[in-house]
Amino acid sequence: MKYIFVTGGVVSSLGKGLAAAALGTLLELRGLRVAFQKFDPYLNVDPGTMSPFQHGEVYVLNDGAETDLDLGHYERFTNCVLSRHNNLTSGQVYESVINRERRGDYLGKTVQVIPHVTDQIKARIRELSDESKYDVVITEVGGTTGDIEGLPFLEAIRQFILEVGAQNVVTLIPYIKAARELKTKPTQQSIAKLREIGLQPQVLMCRTEHPLDAELRQKLSMFCSVAPEAVIEFRDVAHSIYEAPLIIHEEGMDALICKLLGLQTPEPDLGNWRKFVERVVSPKKRVKIAVVGKYIDLQDAYKSIYESLTHAAASQDCGIELKLIDAETLEDGVNGKLKDVAGILIPGGFGDRGVEGKIEAARFARENKLPYLGLCLGMQVATIEFARNVCGMTNANSTEFDRTASEPVICLLEEQREVRNKGASMRLGTWPTKIQPGTLAEKIYGKDEVLERHRHRYEFNMKYREQMREKGFEISGTSPDGSLAELVELRDHPYFLACQYHPEFQSKPNQPHPLFKGFIQAALAHQR
Fold it and tell me: Distances in Å between the alpha carbon of 15 and those of 63, 69, 227?
C-alpha cells in the first residue's frame, strides 16, 4: 500500500481537492486502484448543519454520509464509490475519543491529543489500508498549514510516515497564487511551518496564473528542499476543471509520483478524457439554461448541479450558458427574466426564502412548455404550483413553510415528526425508486428500478395523488412499496420532470445522469 498526503499552503481554496482528484484520475488510468480520504479540521461532526454560504455544497454519499464537496470531485473524476469512512472531521475524532473515555476504554489514563487523538486519525487511514482493495490512498488535509485545528492531523501524518516507512509516502503541497509577479515567500513560509512539525514535502504543486520559469523553480527547489523536477506548475485552467489531469500530466506529475513510490505502471490512456474536454472546450452548439436558486451568489453551493449540466451537455457536443437567477427576484413575477432560456432547473434547499420565486419559475416552465428539471425542493415547489394553479387548491403549501397549511401537498415524513437533533437525521443516502411503466421517466432511464441519493425531510402528501393525477400530474417513480413519491412528471408537457432525490451526485464526465441528459436534449429541441 502506498500513501499520498495533500496539505495546504498559507491560504485556503487553492484547489487541493481538485489537485487530488486530478492525480487520482491519472493514477487510475495507469491501472492503479485508488482510494481517497478528506480530513476536515473543523469541529462540526459533518457539514450537514452548515450553511451553504459557510461551506458550499453538502455532498451525500451512498451510505448517507453528508460530506465535503471535494468528495464529489473524487467520485466524478474516478470510479471510486466512497463512504463515511472516506471523510473525517475534528468533530468526529473528538466525539469518538470522548465517547471512548466515557465508556472507560482508556482504563483510567489521562486522555490527550497525543497519542489518543492522533491514534484515532491514524486508525482511520488504516481502515482503508486494511481493506487491501487499493494500491494508493490519497488523503487530503483541509484548511491551511499551521491552523491550530489542523495540527493533530499533521502530527498524525508525521507519526504514520514513521510507522509505514517514508519510501511508501509522498507529501504534496499545492499553494501559491500569482499576483503581478510570482512570489515564493508564501511557499517558503508554509514549507517552513510543515518542517517545524516534522514533515518534509517531496512535491510542490504550484497553483499559478503565470508560467514558472526555470529560475523560479530553482529558487523554490533550493529554499524548500525539493528536487527541481518536483516543483510542478499547476496553471489555472483556461476553460474547465477537467483540463486539470491533462495539465499535470504534461508536467510529469503522475510519472514523478510513481517513481517516488516505486510503482511500475504503463502510461495512462487519456484518449476518452481528451475527447470529453474537447467537447466541453469547443462544443458545436450552445444552450442557455436558467438555474433558479437561493444560494446563487456562491459558486460552490450548487457545484454538483453545474458539473452534471456540463457532463450532459458534452454528451450532446453542446456547451452550457448558465443564467443564474436569485429566486427572490422572481417573487413578484417572472417579468421577462426567463424568456431567453431553453430550460429551467430548480435545485434543492431549505427554508422559505425565495420559495415563491421558485414557484413562479415552475409555473412559467409549465405554461410555456419549457423543459423543466426540479431537484428535491425543485420537485416540491413544482407540486405546490400545480396544486394551486391547475387543481384550484389556492392554499396549497408545504408544512415546512406553513405549519398550518390547509392544503399540505408537501408534508413532513412520518418518521421525522419526533426528530429534535438536526444533524444526520434526514432521509439520507441511496434508496430504490420503482419507475412506472409507460412514463417519460421509463423512457429516459430505460429501467424499471433505479438507485438514487436522498437528502430531505419533507415528501409529497399521497393524500392528493389522485386529485392531482386527474389534472395531468403523474407520479412516475415511487418507493418500492408505493408509499413515497420519488419522481413526478406532467403528461401534457414535452419535458417536465422533478425528483425528490439528488441525481447530481451520480453524474460523471463520460457518464451523464439520464435526467440531466434528457433535460439537455429537451432544451436543445426546444431551442430549435
Answer: 26, 12, 22
